[in-house]
Amino acid sequence: MPVGIFRVCLVVITAIINHPLLFPKENGTIPENTEEIIQKMKEREEILRLEKLRLEQEIAGQEARQKALEKAAKVVEESKEEKVPWDMWTAISLVIFLLIEVWRQDFQEGNWQDAGGEEDDMAVLGKAFKGVVLPNKATLASFYEKRILGTTGDMARMREMVEGFADDLLEALRSVCNRDADMEVEDCMGVGSMYENWRVRKPFVCDLIVPFAPPEPYCFRSQTWCSGDSFPPDEQGYGTIKVCRAGEDAAGCICDKTKLGEDMLCLLHSQANTTRPSSEMEDLLCFKNTQYLDADQVMKWFQIAVTKAWNRISHKYEFDLSFSLLDSPGALKIKFKSGKSVAFNLTPVVQYENSDVYFISHFPRSGLAGDLPSSTHWFLTFAVYERRFIQLVSKMLPANACHVSCLQILSFLHGKQCSLTGPSGLTNYHLKTVLLHLLQARPCQDWAPEKLEARLQDMLKFLEKCLHEKKLHHFFVGNGKIPAELGFPIIFQRAEPLNLFRPFVLHRDVYRKTVDTFHEMLRNTSALINEYTVHIP
């Protein structure tokens, strides 16, 4: 706008200066070509007039554009003034809604806490557990006494009978084996729910493990997934066993890796012994053309040896012995003439160094777990330490503590629900792992017998949280708080935690089935307990 005014003023001043009237006639002479000058002045005047018109049009256009911009700016300001209150009310409404929702959830969770306020939640309470109402203490006590406690005497008698027969069978097995060529079998040990006194569902099955060692001059050199070498995620929890000569390093003698001169001789091995025949290693139950112990070969040898041992002592007993399950090579069944039967598992294992951790050849797995990576990979079992930990903690708990009762009730409920809706990826070992974690986290006085209902709720909440996160850590692996009295190997305490629910991440259909079964069990808890409980007046 100022530029336009300046240009107009400049044109007017130029016109005034160049106008002929400014020059007095008496002060100048009229040129001879006056007409030509007048004509040029007219042309000049016409040009100035056209320039003035153009400048006026340009100034008018600028003024129009300026007005349009001012109008647009005014509209924007009005829209901002209208939008700010709208955004403010939207934000206020959203904050109020969130506060109401948080208050509602806190209020609902508060209704499920214990009335005295002395019990703290061990896990985040999920949606499924909010609608569950467990039976009262009297009903739970009656259910436990009538339905579960009565089976304890049966388990004790069965354990005594199976252990006596297994000792006799293994003694006969040693007599039929070649001491110079066959594996050396040690005494068996009882592990699992039957020996931890919490098994509730029939048929009762005793789990016995039988350590064995190679004949002289050989020995086992084991390697686990946490020993330093990288193992794939699907091989965590497993290890390999290499058969070596006594005094030989697991990696082998240097004479197998270095070319010795013609005039040099290995002091440990003769020239004829530098290469081991493959048939010799197969006789030691190794995988073909390797030094690694083969679990399938071990089970075949063990089944044949058990069959020979039974043939030797069968005349002493008035019952028959047979292998009961094809997919579980160590499963045996005693059949009496009366028609009754007793089942037990006799499984060969290899000791890990000088500890009570064992490599087990065939571990009972559910459909959730995948197959072994190969037959040279052995699963590690910590069953002996689990039994010792429960025994150690039980000595510090109050008299008639409810920890075993909680595990028995939960195992019974899960078993009944699976019989109704089919099997799921949740096993009794998962339930026992939950109990072990809570035994370590809870003070001893919290396991008094009158707190059975509260501790059962804790187990259900903890299990629901683990299912929601798809994460249940192995109790011993990666746990630095294991009591020193157990003498647990430090290598496993320093290892990364082992997630027992990792297969749920890989098998979404099994996970969905497991969660549905668990939620259905929660809804049916009261009905299942009342169904098996004597009426209390």
TrEMBL record:
It comes from the Eukaryota. GO terms for molecular function: protein kinase inhibitor activity. GO terms for cellular component: nuclear outer membrane; plasma membrane. Residues 38-72 form a coiled coil. Residues 404-477 form the Mab-21-like HhH/H2TH-like domain. Keywords: Cell membrane, Coiled coil, Glycoprotein, Membrane, Nucleus, Receptor, Signal, Transmembrane, Transmembrane helix. SMART domains: Mab-21. It is found in: Cell membrane; Nucleus outer membrane. InterPro entries: ITPRIP-like, Mab-21_HhH/H2TH-like, MAB21L/cGLR. Pfam families: Mab-21_C. Its main location: membrane. It is a single-pass type I membrane protein. Enhances Ca(2+)-mediated inhibition of inositol 1,4,5-triphosphate receptor (ITPR) Ca(2+) release. Belongs to the ITPRIP family. This is Inositol 1,4,5-trisphosphate receptor-interacting protein. It comes from Tinamus guttatus. The lineage of its organism: Eukaryota, Metazoa, Chordata, Craniata, Vertebrata.
